[in-house]
Amino acid sequence: MSEAVVLTLRAPLDAALDMTGITPDRCAPLSRAEIAALPVWVGRERAVLGDVFDVRGERAARVEIEGDLSKACGVGARMTSGLLHVRGNVGDDAGQAMSGGVLRVDGHAGDRLGGPSPGASKGMTGGEVVVFGSTGASPAALVRRGLVAVAGGAGAYAGRGMIAGTLLALGPLGELPGAGNKRGSIIAAGGVPVPASYRWACSYEPPHVRLLLTSLRRRFGFPCDPALLNGRFDRYCGDAGEPGKGEILVWTGHERRRE
Amino acid sequence: MRAARVVITARTMKWARAAAVKLTGFATSVIACKCEAAIERELTPDETPDARPGVSALMFTMDTDSLGKRLTERIGQTVLTCPTASCFDGLPDVPDRLPAARALRTFGDRFQISKVVNGDRYWRVPVMEGECLLQESFGMQKKGVGGGNFLILAEDIDSGLDAAEAAVAAIDGMPGVILPFPGGVVRSGSKLGARGYKRMIASTNDAYCPTLRPLTTSALPDGVNTVLEIVLDGLSPDAISAAMRVGIDAACRSGIRAISAGNYGGKLGPHHFHLRQILGAPA
């Protein structure tokens, strides 16, 4: 048993790589040879993981991937437990249909981060996705439970149809965030065009945001400015077409009075 | 005994302490207060889950049901009501869990919101001030120890209080230990049962009452005119022993004739703290 399974990209990807199902929970009971034999798709061709990655370690619930996976989709998809740490970028559909564990991405992520499997009614149902860069369009779509935290910005349609759960973005969010949001929380620290279907409630210091930011900073070194930690947020309730129990919390930049 | 550690944070230490003082109020003895509780120590922002100033308090009860109920009642009436206060579990690594704050979510009248952070569930309860954040479940230490004690036998009340206050100051802030009585000191140490009243669970410890010296089988040496007791509850026997050692050492000063302890015929519980052993002297 190793401390971690380490996958190092053998060569830059020149075709799309489908990483769906390469998860820590799946690697946990497997030997190095069995992990290297896990099936993946490279473009239209079937391949095994060992063709694309140099595999080190075995039988560990912690998987580290080294290399630029911008062309890889489904990284961490259907994860149920463990830690998947990507030291680079990931492509579309990372953390798709996750139900547990932690997906950490030190670079940027593509579209549909933490979203649903094609045709499914729910996105993530648990776990945490922590991205240190930015993400593309439609992150945290149809999320039922869990956290998507992005240190950079996000594209359009962030938190589309959120059922519950939390989306945190320290950078700017694109157009139409929280469309169809039922009970989800969108925490926007870098600017957000609040849709007209959300109604302003108050300006306050939400204690759970402070807890969440502190937890992320301590566990992952997530870049949380003290001004953000001590800051006030405008709370907007919505989406109006839904039960309206969702929220967009917008950092106002006003720091609390020092004691 | 069953024990829980409650961490209360607030915008300032003043408000965290205000909530903690109320949380641990009227909790000197399980005999009449249903629980024993006190502030353990103050916490810096680095030590609290939300990086705010905080206070940790320990609560002890005789059984599991009671601990859950006391936590729910007291958190609901003190932390939920205190401006800016939040409440967290201080024993996260303990496997036995009590969902003590789960019932409090209903104060939110279906406007409450659940959040899971790092695997732990929290409730955001909307209140007039803004929002109250409560961690749902609390770790329960099944092998807490209550009723650790030592007696300070003094020549007079001045020297007795000086010694007791010194002992309390020395113990204050030690991890895993609380002194649940007023100022950490008890003047009315008790014996089990009563001589004259069948239904009394406890009554005055007449052997150590100076006014009864000629009327009972007194345990007081000559020259002792007052006795004060330090009662300790702890998360483990080791925590109690460490605190007693420090406290007794601090109490040994001018005007103190002897240090003793009540063992109640060995009937109070399975843990015995032998003073000579604790102080490292031969038995």
Write the layout of secondary structure elements.
The complex is a heterodimer of chains A (259) and B (283).
Chain A: E1 5-9, E2 17-18, H1 24-27, H2 32-36, E3 39-42, E4 45-48, H3 49-52, E5 53-56, E6 62-66, E7 72-73, E8 83-87, E9 102-105, E10 125-131, E11 145-150, E12 166-169, E13 185-188, E14 199-204, H4 207-220, H5 226-229, E15 231-238, E16 246-255
Parallel strand pairs in A: 1-6, 2-7, 6-8, 8-9, 9-10, 10-11, 11-12, 12-13, 13-16
Antiparallel strand pairs in A: 1-5, 2-3, 3-4, 14-15, 15-16
Chain B: E1 2-9, H1 13-23, H2 30-33, E2 36-43, E3 54-61, H3 64-79, E4 86-89, E5 97-98, E6 113-117, E7 120-127, E8 130-135, E9 138-139, E10 145-154, H4 157-171, E11 177-178, E12 190-192, E13 202-204, E14 226-234, H5 237-251, E15 256-260, H6 275-278
Helix pairs in contact in B: 1-3, 4-5
Task: Spell out the key features of this protein.
heterodimer, A: 259 residues, mainly beta, 12-stranded mixed β-sheet, 4-stranded mixed β-sheet, 31% strand, elongated, B: 283 residues, alpha+beta, Alpha-Beta Plaits, 2 domains, 4-stranded antiparallel β-sheet, 15 strands
Can you put this structure into words, describing what you see?
The complex is a heterodimer of chains A (259) and B (283). Chain A is mainly beta and 259 residues long. Chain A has one domain (62-255). Chain A has five helices and 16 strands. Chain A has helices spanning 24-27, 32-36, 49-52, 207-220, 226-229, and strands spanning 5-9, 17-18, 39-42, 45-48, 53-56, 62-66, 72-73, 83-87, 102-105, 125-131, 145-150, 166-169, 185-188, 199-204, 231-238, 246-255. In chain A, the strands form two sheets. Chain A has a twelve-stranded mixed sheet. Chain A has a four-stranded mixed sheet with strand order 4-3-2-7. The radius of gyration of chain A is 19 Å and the shape is elongated. With 283 residues, chain B is α+β, with helices and mostly antiparallel strands. Chain B folds into two domains: 2-139, Alpha-Beta Plaits (2-Layer Sandwich), CATH 3.30.70.520; 145-278, Alpha-Beta Plaits, CATH 3.30.70. Chain B is built from six helices and 15 strands. In chain B, the strands form five sheets. Chain B has a four-stranded antiparallel sheet with strand order 2-3-1-4, covered by helices on one side. In chain B, strands 11-14-10-15 form a four-stranded antiparallel sheet, covered by helices on one side. A three-stranded antiparallel sheet of chain B has the order 6-7-8, with no helix packed on it. In chain B, 42% of the residues are buried. The mean pLDDT of chain B is 94.
